[in-house]
Amino acid sequence: MKNLTREKLIQAGARAMLSKSYHSVGIQEVLSEVDVPKGSFYHYFASKEDFGVAIIKYYGEQLARTIKERLTSDKLSPRQRLKEYFLAVREYYRKLGYGQGCLVAKLATEVARSSPDMRIALKGEFDKWSNLFADCIREAQQAGEISKKYNPGELAEFIYTSWEGALIRMQVNHDISSLDNFIDYVFSYILPEEGSNS
Question: Domain count of the chain?
């Protein structure tokens, strides 16, 4: 029961922080949403910062599961999996709207300097995601789909960081043109099919 309540608090906190911000979300509003008695918060978390770390890890694990599922599917070639992942996220935001991006990226701009514990958690999730992309890039290189001149880890870091930037620009522009631009340039010029003239 305690673990279930803790998870509900994390989920409610993640929704609230994605909609607003870490600093503007009060503990009481999260407790009220989950219908947990006032004063019970510290039975589950040592502090709001500890709560933030738990949210980062929870959100990061959910996204890592989605990335892994899409990038290890045997229905498409490795390079196709990479492209289809980004196209699927683009479609998600096209339907959802442009106001929300990645919670981890959002928190990174807000708390990375002020909270060492949250910064470490943020880095851990970004590294986890980049490693999943690096694995897929490495597989695509072995399949002859992506040039072996690239270091898979460095390329994955560059691509995923660029993607997070495109998501931020999407929110600012209030359209998905930045995502379209990212997908076009990455797969036409950075990761062209081997043997193409791009």
Answer: 2
